[in-house]
Design goal:
The complex is a heterodimer of chains A (about 160) and B (about 90).
Chain A (H helix, E strand, L loop, with lengths): L5 E7 L6 H15 L2 E7 L1 H10 L8 E4 H9 L7 E6 L2 H13 L3 E6 L4 H5 L7 E4 L7 H17 L1
Parallel strand pairs in A: 1-2, 1-4, 2-3, 4-5, 5-6
Chain B lengths: L9 E7 L1 H11 L2 E5 L4 E2 L2 E2 L6 E6 L2 E8 L3 E8 L3 H7 L3
Antiparallel strand pairs in B: 1-7, 2-5, 3-4, 5-6, 6-7
Classes of the chains: A alpha/beta (about 160), B alpha+beta (about 90).
């Protein structure tokens, strides 16, 4: 890691909605293409899905536990330039709200699943909301993310 | 996910939302203190959108515990030294 290298934290929740892993890999790819170093934090299952999908670690580099990531940020040991939180349930909103409070990163809430729009209405903290009703087919969320990624990179 | 299981928590509410957990503590626990997101009790982070409350009931702490897959739980555990630390927090 170089001193001036930009970094992004990608927070993965429960992987029960299929599009999460696919979209996380796609996001990691996009960030790397733009010279931003991605760090993935997630549940054990979410991380295992990433590991198995990318056995040669072509896309995935650093991965960490959710609690360990929060520990480092609250302990002022580390922070990120960008933070993307994958959200498909109330816990996802809770984690994104926590990141909005503890981190200086520009925050992106990526909402998906059956209730993406309802969940988006629950967000009461500063962040960029990227929401699409995507459960099995990632394309609606991919299209929304593509729009925002241009913006994210130009603002960094 | 921290060491909550090792603390043998009493589950007061299960698989609820962080907002409902907040309301439960505010309405049902006489002494409660506001903490910031990420505040650590024993080895567990309090997760959610402010305001977040931690209650004190006798020698026990009552607080919201969020699991990524199962929502938020309201749990009761022995407070030990955490009670004094919580009471000493700047209001």
């Amino acid at each position: 890691m170089t001193e001036n290298e930009k970094t992004a934290l990608i927070l993965l929740g429960c992987p029960q909605v299929p599009v999460q892993t696919s979209m996380a890999l796609y996001l990691v790819h996009g960030l790397k293409e733009h010279g931003i170093r991605p760090v993935i934090a997630g549940t054990v299952a979410a991380r295992k899905l990433m590991e198995v999908a990318d056995p040669d670690r072509y896309y995935v580099s650093e991965m960490t536990d959710l609690d360990a990531a929060i520990d480092e940020i609250t302990g002022k040991e580390r922070d990120f330039d960008l933070c993307f939180v994958f959200i498909h349930n109330d816990s996802g909103i809770a984690y994104a709200g926590t990141m909005a409070y503890i981190s200086k990163a520009r925050l992106y809430a990526l909402l998906f699943g059956e209730h993406a729009q309802d969940l988006a209405g629950e967000i009461e903290f500063p962040c960029e909301v990227v929401a699409a009703k995507a459960v099995h087919n990632p394309m609606p969320l991919k299209r929304r993310l593509d729009e925002v990624m241009q913006w994210a990179v130009s603002k960094r | 996910m921290g060491c909550l299981e090792a603390m043998k928590p009493e589950i007061i509410l299960s698989q609820t939302t962080f907002k409902e957990a907040r309301e439960y503590i505010k309405k049902n626990i006489r002494e409660y203190h506001e903490v910031e997101p990420g505040y650590k009790i024993h080895d567990v982070h309090i997760i959610g959108v402010p305001p977040l409350y931690v209650g004190i009931e006798g020698e026990d702490l009552i607080f919201p515990y969020t699991k990524p897959c199962h929502g938020t739980f309201v749990v009761k555990v022995a407070g030990d030294e955490e009670i004094a630390r919580l009471r000493a927090k700047k209001k």
